[in-house]
Amino acid sequence: MSTLVKKIKHYLNASYELRSWFGTVDHKRIAILYLISVTLFFFVGGFFAVMIRLELLTPAGDLVSSETYNKLFTMHGIIMIFFFLIPAVPAVLGNFLIPIMIGARDMAFPRLNLASWYCYIGGALFATAAMVTGGVDTGWTFYTPYSSTYSNGAVVLTALGAFVAGFSSILTGLNFIVTIHKMRAPGMTWFRLPLFIWSNYAASIIMVLATPVLGAAIFLVFLERAFHIGIFDPNLGGDPVLFQHLFWFYSHPAVYIMILPSMGVMSELVAAFSRKRVFGYDFVAGSSLAIAVLGFLVWGHHMFVSSQSMYAGFVFSFLSFLVAIPSAIKVFNWTATLYKGSISLQTPMLYALGFIGLFTIGGLTGLFLASLGLDVHVHDTYFIVAHFHYIMVGGVVMGYLGGLHYWWPKMTGRLYPEFWARISALNIFIGFNLTFFPQFLLGYMGMPRRYHAYPEEFQVLNVMSTAGASVLAVGYLIPMIYMLWSLKYGKKAPANPWNAKGLEWTIPSPPPVHNFDEIPVVTEEAYAYAEAPHRG
Amino acid sequence: MAKQTHSPLQHHFTSLSQQYAASQLGMWTFLLTELLFFGGLFLSYTIYRMSYPHGFAAASHELDVRLGCINTIVLISSSLTMALAVRAGHEGKGKSITGFLVLTMALGGTFLGIKSIEYAHKFHEHFVPGPNFAFPHYASQGPELFFSLYFAMTGLHAIHMIIGLVALGVVAWKATRGRYTKEYSTPVEMLGLYWHFVDIVWIFLFPLLYLLGRH
Ligand code: HEM
Ligand SMILES: [Cu+2]
Asked: Which residue of B lies nearest to A20 if distances are taken between CA atoms?
């Protein structure tokens, strides 16, 4: 930049001291803090995944001991769930975008927003301390009475980590709800909100209503373990299955905490890159709420084989099928939006298409699992592992990466190299399927999860899966490199590089500290693209 | 950040009424999460109460109803003084705010004092679950579960009281410095909501733990 041009102040260069970052109350800076910490944990969790896959390369279980293996998959699960998947889209993209998208200067409670980042870091520190002082081997689900009485691992520390991280999630959800209710710019009615806002709103409701119940469950495990107060221990008359009820009352809805915000990203991407209003906007918005409500009614499908009566099984099976409806509405409506749109296959769109394909496979196999009889067959096999990776990695991570690419120019003021970005998107798609598709077959053939050794006949598919994991790992590293590169060498981004609609594209990239000099007045619907006349 | 100490309107709101509405919705949402947090414990209590009705009844006889009653009255009185503080806030009377908040703190402190006397008794009589637990003439595990839940629930409630006392102290101190006016006393009001919530939890805990199954 020539020295003649006056340097424009934006949120990144407004001030430089450390305090202006670690004490910031600017939602955009908080989003960047989250971006850095979430990325870090993604790679830590990824490292554990690589270790798991290397162990499973050979049938013999020769790389690590069985105890170490248990710790590996536990730490992998805990880090990925609590420290990556749950915060990724809401805390990074949501924090950055929600105030801007609704025309506000900040979240309703900026200091609470910062506090929630500190809760995240606090929780992460506890979990890391647990990792380096011996690890945990309970699985991320902390099932009692193993976790509360018998495990040799650092359960208390880890549980504390999850508990504190839970606060982060509750505070974020609360802040989103209040912000979306009370901070909308004049003219930004509920039905003019971008769908990203709707989906984060629905996810926030779950964060606020479900997370405290997990808190209670973890609190009780903590009491049982630390003070020998018995609640779940059968020796004291307690019931270990009660824990599973409390746990899954949170953890099934938690799946939607992860996936709903990603679905919101999808709606933005699909609209922007086919230049159309999302087909059936009202239905897509409503289906987010429907998913949030129905998500609370299906936890029993995790307990088909845990002493639940057959009738309860029927009911939970049926209710689980119902959740498929709003999810399918979304997929159909995205597809309908693409239909006859003027589609451009830029990188975010590649991720969006990848999402739709992988999420569909994950969702359909979810229906298999919701069917009582079939679930009994594949329960705790690799079929489950494949299913949830299709949803969580194929859905959430693809949505997150797609969104990160889409809003990267806005967040950083720089463009990333399109060529490398497309290469890595393809790379991830291929690596992903190679890693996880064989696991469906393995599970169907009967390979149980959470074992560090297996019979010879499963080796071929396991080798494929491990090979896929290395391809996938490369796919995740490339964006890391070119995005860092782009910060210094990338082309300067204009305010609206995609020619997209939405308030975030009306302000400079990167945005000024207070987002809007003057609060905008909204006069049009979301996604008011000039559509081709042949819609119909 | 705190440049505009004299104006209570924060920079990102457009009006005081917007700011007030946000605080209110935020506080209610927070209380909803609290409700669910305690809800998990109440659910556990209900389930075990149904599984071990006699053990639970026997164990609840060991609680001191008199102390429980006194504490209930103490807490309800503190709700009253809190409500008076909130009203003083609306009227912008800084001195009365401080006075009523200090009264509330005194009552809250009394509650915790009585609670700790109760805890000491239970400890003395080996009613604290764990290796030394001893409950006279009882075969099933009901009483131990009862006391597990008793300590979990009343303990959690006490933690909430302590947090409330700290917050009361802070707000009372700010009131002495004239921070609250007729136009702006939101923190006093929000603290009031929190304190009433904590009281209401006790109003449920008291009959469930002390009275149910008694004759
Ligand atoms: C390179 C990619 C990955 C590979 C190869 C991989 C591999 C695995 C394997 C083999 C397991 C099963 C362990 C077992 O049950 O024996 C597992 C579990 C799990 N993975 Fe991954 N994973 C990968 C990426 C991810 C990502 C990106 C996430 C989330 C964002 C994730 C979330 C989970 C969770 C939640 C579990 C359950 C842990 C448990 O069983 O307690 N994984 N992963
Ligand atoms: Cu589920």
From this structure: B1
Give the one of B34, B142, B156 whose C-beta lies nearest to A237's C-beta: B142
Residue type (1 letter), A395: G
Q: Any CB–CB contact under 8 A between A241 and chain B?
A: no
- pLDDT band of A2, cuts 50, 70, 90: very low
Cβ atoms of B148 and A230 closer than 8 Å: yes
Ligand 1 residue neighbourhood (C-beta within 6 Å): A 46, 49, 52-53, 73-74, 76-77, 80-81, 84-85, 139-140, 385, 389, 392-393, 397, 435, 449-450, 469, 472-473
To the nearest whole percent, how much of chain B has pLDDT over 70? Answer: 97
Q: How far apart are CA B211 and CA B205, in angstroms?
A: 10
ipTM: 0.91
Residue A61 CA to residue A63 CA, distance in Å, equals: 6
SS3 of A314-345? HHHHHHHHHHHHHHHHHHHHHHHHHCCCCCCC
**CA–CA gap between residue A321 and residue A300 (Å, rounded):** 13
Report pLDDT digits (tens) over A31-46: 999 999 999 999 999 9
Do A228 and B22 make contact, defined as CB atoms within 8 angstroms?
no
State how far the Cα of B92 lies from the Cα of B69, in Å rounded to an integer.
35
Closest CA to A173 of A147, A195, A149, A199: A199
DSSP sequence for A41-103: HHHHHHHHHHHHHHHTTSTT--SS-HHHHHHHHHHHHHIIIIIIIHHIIIIIIIHHHHHHHTT
Interfacial residues of B (vs A; Cβ cutoff 8 Å) = 1, 10-14, 18, 21-22, 25-26, 29-30, 32-34, 36-41, 43-44, 47-48, 51-52, 55, 129-131, 140-142, 144-145, 148-149, 151-152, 156
Q: What tokens appear for A310 in the block?
A: 């057959």
Ligand 1 atom at minimal distance to the Cα of residue A451? 16
Mean of pLDDT over chain B: 92
The model's pLDDT over A462-510, given as tens digits with 9 standing for 90+, comes to 999 999 999 999 999 999 999 999 999 999 999 999 999 999 999 999 9
C-beta separation of A379 from A449 below 8 A = no
Which amino acid, residue A9? K
Residue A112's closest chain B neighbor by CA? B26
Count Cβ atoms below 10 Å from residue A467 Cβ, excluding itself. Answer: 16
The CB-side HSE value for A324 (13 A sphere, CA atoms) comes to: 17
Q: In this predicted structure, what is the pLDDT of residue A6?
A: 56
State the first-to-last Cα distance of chain B, in angstroms, to the nearest integer: 60
Mean per-residue pLDDT for B189-206? 96
Q: Are the beta carbons of A150 and A224 closer than 8 angstroms?
A: no
From atom 36 of ligand 1, which residue's Cα is the shortest distance away?
A77
Flag if B145 and A230 touch (Cβ within 8 Å): yes
A520 in contact with chain B, both atoms CB, cutoff 8 A:
no
Are B55 and B145 in contact by the 8 Å Cβ rule? The answer is yes
Asked if A301 and A322 touch (Cβ cutoff 8 Å), the reply is no
Per residue in A83-92, pLDDT (tens digit) is 999 999 999 9
